[in-house]
Structure formats: structure tokens, C-alpha cells
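Q: Joint fold for the lines below.
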Amino acid sequence: MQMDVSTRQLRAFVALAQQRNFTRAAARLHLSQPAFSALIRSLEELLGVRLFDRNTRKVELTPEGESFEEVAQRLLADFDHAMTDVRDHVARRRGRVSLAVLPSLAAGWLPPVLSEFHALYPGIDLDVADVLSEDCLERVRSGSADFALAAIRADSPELRTEVFCSDRFHLVCRADHPLATAPVLRLRDLASHPFVQLARTSSVRQYLDAAVHPMQMNTLMEVEQLATVMGMVRSGLGISVVPALTLFHFEQPGLVTRPLQVAGLTRRIFLIRRRDRSLSAAAQALYELVMRKKPDEQAG
Amino acid sequence: MQMDVSTRQLRAFVALAQQRNFTRAAARLHLSQPAFSALIRSLEELLGVRLFDRNTRKVELTPEGESFEEVAQRLLADFDHAMTDVRDHVARRRGRVSLAVLPSLAAGWLPPVLSEFHALYPGIDLDVADVLSEDCLERVRSGSADFALAAIRADSPELRTEVFCSDRFHLVCRADHPLATAPVLRLRDLASHPFVQLARTSSVRQYLDAAVHPMQMNTLMEVEQLATVMGMVRSGLGISVVPALTLFHFEQPGLVTRPLQVAGLTRRIFLIRRRDRSLSAAAQALYELVMRKKPDEQAG
DNA sequence: CGATCTTACGGGATTCGTAAACATA
DNA sequence: TATGTTTACGAATCCCGTAAGATCG
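A: Joint structure:
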């Protein structure tokens, strides 16, 4: 049993209930008076009840009309509220974006991007997960992130991967270290020096292991955080090699960073999103800004 | 800014969100699939967002579609609830009637009528005001009663009066009273006997005063309630004259009631309702039953 | 008789269903 | 290639506005 009452009929009813005059109420809906009359009649027929007692001199609500008035007003208000809510989301006046990003991006490159985003769309809430690549992917897969920036490609078929940027590796060492001023830097030159490694789960480490066999490295220690690497290097315990996007950690007095021109030693950052699933208006807006603000390909 | 989204569009949207298949969802609305497709498209255009990601193999909600789904379902539920509510009232499954009736009618004639009414329409609440005629009219005038049964006509132009029934007067006295067996009863025969009167505000008294000048009466006492009149008469203090509709008070052992064949001494009961104001479905139903159950014109 | 609602009716927009075209796994 | 959506298009329907008719104070 479905009653396809239209919102127009409701609006007509409310207008007439307020104006108590067909001609004026019709004008308010930008309708001719007979057309308006038909609209009221159709509503009455649909409900099976007269809503107005009317003659040429007076228009009054019937008891049923009276009790229907508040109902109709509430329904219309709910309706309009719901519609403006949708429009607000579409217009990016409101909404929420969730993204998952590698910690290295989250600390260095991301903040100014989000700052600009927030200035553009102050009504959109932001939800950032600064987690490792595997976790990034999982969050996109489960839907808890709209998209992600990670260092690995997605494997599952419901995800879509696109290259976001390339991230070249740099040597980091003390300014008084011999390599700081060496004319040429080759990977095997570095191998002999005491080296501060990141944990094997990090993408940085995986790239390094792929480029230089671990056996050839003079690994001094393994730590979890890049900030720790920096501390170790600054105190002269060893050197390290990190991607360009993490260099902000090493912009410290007494430290030197030097690009490595090594073929194949380039970390790729990927943007991961669900396939066959469009982004929300808010997520699309962030996606576009993120793509526009890609780290310079020449960085490093 | 009014968005005339129709309930059909909402129903189409919800059907598709649930079925995730245009063909099946179209069938559910008894529509051809292309017509259904157009309905969805029109909704998406109106809202300015795609609500479904679709290809020939899969139909999925977009993020906007997802958040719109609960909104649409709630709106439709509210809508349908409001509509069935109206229909329930029209079908007399629910509702309320308020009526105002003279106490004499309220105690004797009314209860079985309301009993039948309640059996017919168990969902309709009843509101009875058993008050004197003036008060009956005032309640109709103010809208707190849908209609009234009173002993006076309405004066104000917004009220409409119709004759409901005629109520003949009867002598009430003890069985051992001389008048109980008198061959003929004339008004002047009664006048000499001690008489128990009702208060001047009662319609019964007003009729009597109009028929027999008070000076000609042997008034023993004035009381407010008919039940009191009965008690006085039963104890032999005097006689009285009351309308047929109140005789149930006097159906007591040792009491006699005898009709008075006096021209002009007939109380009229009127039904009063607002002019130019239709009755609610519930009130109309009671009105019709009340008219069908009019006290027999021959009563008395 | 004047203001106002209803009825009558022709034209135009909307919406429908059928059939063909198109897309994807 | 099979399934399922979109496009194309003629037909039916719905809805509007103008004009005439009816009604009440």
C-alpha cells in the first residue's frame, strides 16, 4: 500500500492552509489558480477525505485537514532538511574524508596540503591514518579510508593502484664524515661504513635490501623510527640512506644529505583506491588537491 | 529552494539500493526497466550526484548513495506512517469524538448508543460532556465538542440547529396518589397538588413555567437533580412533571408515571453543530448513529 | 454584482513501453 | 556470448493555463 503523495501536493496543502485563499496560495506556488485547485483535489482524492471546507467566500480546514497540517509541515521540513543535507555534501560544504598515508608522508608533505584543503573546505572533517603500507591498503579495502598513499601496490582485485610519485634515496651523514664531501657517491662506497637501518617491515629497508644484498652491508643497528635514525647519525654512530620525502627529519645543523644517483634505487609511492567505487564529493576534492600537490618529481 | 523529489523516486532509489539490480527493482515498482532507469537518473540529476556506480555487471551505491539510503528510508517510513495515520482516521479505525449532551440524555438514552458505537469503532476515543444546554452550545462554539444535544436552539450565526426529537412530559407520583388513577389528567388538575420543582436554570422548569404560570402552582420545593425529585416524590412529599427521556429515574416500585396530553407542553431536543464546518470522520460516524437511534417520537 | 472557486478544453511537457544499441565479464 | 544497462522513439498520459460557468455574500 503505497501512497504516492508528492511534495508539491504537500506544499500546495500547506500554502492553502496558511493563506486560506486559493488564488493567493496558487500564486505562491507560481501556478494558475485552476491548476492549484486540481492539485488540492488530487491530494484529497488520494487521502479519501476533504481537507478544506470551502465556498466562494471562505476556505477553512476540516478536522482532518487540521490534523494533517502539522503532519504535512513536519514531513516537508524533514524533506527539505534531508535535501539540503545532500546538497551540502555535494557542494563540499560538509562531509568527511578519511585517508591513510605512510608516516613519512604524513609528517612532511601532507600537513600543508591538508592545511590548504581545510581552508578551501572548512566544513569537511578530516581523518588521517598515518600507518605503514600494509595497513594503508587494508584500510582502503575495508572502506575505513577513502584512498591511501603507500609504498606498495595493491594486490586485491577490488583495489586500484596508480603511481603517485617517485622518491629518490639520499645519503645522510655528519658534515664531518668523509662521504659528505666525496666527489662521487656509489652504493658500494657506502656499504663499508657503519649503517643505521630501519626495521625490515619498513618500505625503505625493503628497497635497500633489494638494491644491496644485506650481507654486503655494515649494519650497525636496526631501529623503528626515522627520528631515531637521525639521532644516531647526528651523533656520528653511522650513516644511513633514506628517501627524499623523509629528509625533513635530517635538516639539522651538522648533518649533510646527498642525493644518490643509483639506477633502480627509487621508491615509488602509490595512490590506492577502490576499484568500481567512486569517491565521495569530499574525497574527490581531496584527491584532486593531492594530485595537484604531488611532490616534485625532481625532489632528490 | 524547493527540491521536488517525489516519493516514487525515493521508492525507486530504495528498491535499487536493496536489489542492486535495475531489472528486479523495476519489476518491484511495476515499471519497465528503462522507465525505472530514467527515474533513477532524474533523481541523480535533481540531487546533482551519482547515487549508484553501475555497469552491466554490478550496481553499487556511491558514498553519497550510501548516506542517502538511510535518509530515504526514514523519509519514506515517515511518509507512509503519516499516510496510514490519515487513512486510519478516515476509515474510523482511530480518532476521537467529543459531544456535549444534556445530563438527562447522557444518563438514560446515550449509554446504549455509545456502547454500540464503541463496538463498531473500538479505536475511536469518546469524550462526553454531560452539561446543561447553554454549556453544550458554548462547547460546540469553542470547538471542544463536535456537536451537542441540547434543549435550546443556537443563537450565534456560526452554529446550525436541527430538531433532534420531541420529548413529551409525564406526571410522576406515588401509586397511592389520587392522580395515579384519575381518569383524565389536565394541567390545572395538577396545579393544586404539592409540586417538586427543578431549579429555574433547567430546561424542564422553563418549559413548565411557560405552560403554567408559576403563580398557579403549588410549589413545595426546588431541587437541582432529577434523582432528588424522584426521592421526594417517592416519599410522598409531592408530585412532579418531567420529560419522557428522564423517566428512567422514576422506574421505581410504588411510583407511577402517566403521560400528559397537553398541547404545547413538549420539550424539543436540538442537535447543534458548527455551520460551514464539516465533521471529522469519527464525529460523522457518531452523528449518523445518533440520528439513527433517535428516541422514538411516540415515547411519552 | 463582485470576488472566488470549479469545470471545460486544447496544447505541451512528462513518462511510459518496445526495440535496438551498447557494455562488460 | 550472455546478461544487463542505456539510448531511441512513438504513444499514452498527465499537467498546465485560458476561458467560461457556477456560487456565495
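Q: Anything notable?
A: Chain B touches chain A at residues 1-8, 11, 47-50, 53, 55, 58, 60, 62-64, 67-68, 71-72, 74-75, 78-80, 82-87, 89-90, 146, 276-281, 283 (CB under 8 Å). The CA atoms of residues 179 and 189 of chain B lie 9 Å apart.
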